[in-house]
């Protein structure tokens, strides 16, 4: 399954708006009108599940709660699953609520995976909630979430 | 290689015991330009990200990932594989420019 | 990568100092001691350290023939793990032809122009950072060992004076933060001691590699001073002083910092 990312917004921020939007990484990544919301994240999750509301169970999102940089956030997702028969995770999608888009990544597992786990590094423009949703072979969905705090660097000015 | 596509650093054990679940890591040199970042003139820099990564063992998909702009520059992926037999792993990925890259590794299973 | 202004001053950090004092040798800490466990783990594992991508590029470049002389680094120096072991730990070093110290980047470019008859790499270019990271990584774990060379003394003294000189609209010296207030917080970030032993580094906020001079320029714009251009003598002098200040500390190149 390959998901096509949604089209880019046409909004182009001016320098003044960029400065008004805040400092550091937040200003870099997030144009004011191009920020996902909790509702958009929920919509993206329902698009992934085909309208099914995932059960809050079995999925763990492991991210240090206090982050010194939002540019590269170590993220581990795992699902309690035997990875056999119907107790099998076919894919695991990662969502955020405040980046310009709610989608982060979709991991696809196989009979050779052995475990339903993956680690990666993600960008977070702000403190926010990260949600992972697992799709099981039997058509059920499970989810887990974590709230993280992204601190702004003290000396963010680049030269 | 064309455009923004660079080298990859792929790490896995050279040998494994039959039935072991091994960890495979891939790190790909790529700026992962989000499409949301303005240049010094205030114009958005066009999006160019690695949008798909796949790992195959003897032609069969082990793991795949669809990536979005929220994945960090020089994307890093770690995943697992149950080692059942010796064989060849193929890693392939593509970015928005359409550039494709591929690397191969062998694993010996005892 | 450009940012909107982002210098945050909270609390009394950097404000109350009178005279700066050198950090006692046994109280020196690497920048790695001021970063999160996750970022430190990234640096310490070569299969996870994003700076290794650049370092491996440097390894390839070591054996690439270049310039009018069609010579590679390896053609003169042989395999880097042997010939470059401990070399980066001794830079900046005095260069007789230039009658001045050069840092490792400067030495790489001197080799490029003088030996390979090739164009010098641009400051902060991917190639220069890659070769610096690869050569620097051959000194990993070895102590920073500035040469005991009397010709460096005047440059080191100038570097030390620059270190202590107040600059910029915020009117701070390097020493006020990094000698007098290390370990305190500036915004949410811990102020490190500013040692040069992990450069070039992969900085997460840069989403890429950068040199010590890039870091200097960051700090200078942070205190609202006009930054010297890359390669400026002032930067080399500061590097000579910082190598002395970090003498004996283990090289970590290529480092990872937030």
Short key terms for the protein model shown above:
heterotrimer; B: 110 residues; mainly beta; five-stranded mixed sheet; three-stranded antiparallel sheet; 8 strands; elongated; C: mainly alpha; Cytochrome Bc1 Complex, Chain D, domain 2; three-stranded mixed sheet; two-stranded antiparallel sheet; disordered N terminus
Task: Provide a descriptive summary of the structure in words.
With 159 residues, chain A is of the alpha+beta class. Chain A has one domain: Sandwich (Immunoglobulin-like). Chain A is 15% helix and 35% strand. Chain A is built from three helices and nine strands; from the N terminus they run αααβββββββββ. Chain A has helices spanning 15-20, 24-29, 38-49, and strands spanning 55-56, 59-62, 66-67, 73-79, 89-96, 103-108, 116-122, 128-136, 141-150. Chain B is mostly beta strands. Chain B has a single domain (8-109), classed as Immunoglobulin-like (Sandwich), CATH 2.60.40.10. Chain B is built from no helices and eight strands. Chain B has a five-stranded mixed sheet with strand order 2-8-7-4-5, with no helix packed on it. Chain B has a three-stranded antiparallel sheet with strand order 1-3-6, with no helix packed on it. In chain B, 41% of the residues are buried. Chain C has two domains: 26-45 and 145-257, Cytochrome c-like domain (Cytochrome Bc1 Complex, Chain D, domain 2, Orthogonal Bundle); 52-137, Orthogonal Bundle (Cytochrome Bc1 Complex, Chain D, domain 2), CATH 1.10.760.10. Chain C has helices at 37-44, 51-62, 73-77, 80-83, 104-115, 126-137, 153-164, 174-178, 212-222, 233-245, and strands at residues 93-95, 100-102, 185-186, 189-190, 201-203, 208-210, 255-257. Chains in contact: A-B, A-C, B-C. The A-C interface holds A 18-19, 21-25, 27-28, 64, 66-69, 71-72, 74, 151-159 and C 1-8, 35-39, 41-42, 50, 185-189, 191, 204-207, 214, 217-222, 227, 258.
Strand and helix layout:
The complex is a heterotrimer of chains A (159), B (110) and C (258).
Chain A (H helix, E strand, L loop, with lengths): L14 H6 L3 H6 L8 H12 L5 E2 L2 E4 L3 E2 L5 E7 L9 E8 L6 E6 L7 E7 L5 E9 L4 E10 L9
Parallel strand pairs in A: 1-9, 3-9
Antiparallel strand pairs in A: 2-4, 4-7, 5-6, 5-8, 8-9
Chain B lengths: L7 E4 L3 E2 L4 E8 L21 E8 L2 E8 L8 E7 L4 E9 L4 E10 L1
Parallel strand pairs in B: 2-8
Antiparallel strand pairs in B: 1-3, 3-6, 4-5, 4-7, 7-8
Chain C lengths: L36 H8 L6 H12 L10 H5 L2 H4 L9 E3 L4 E3 L1 H12 L10 H12 L15 H12 L9 H5 L6 E2 L2 E2 L10 E3 L4 E3 L1 H11 L10 H13 L9 E3 L1
Parallel strand pairs in C: 5-7
Antiparallel strand pairs in C: 1-2, 3-4, 5-6
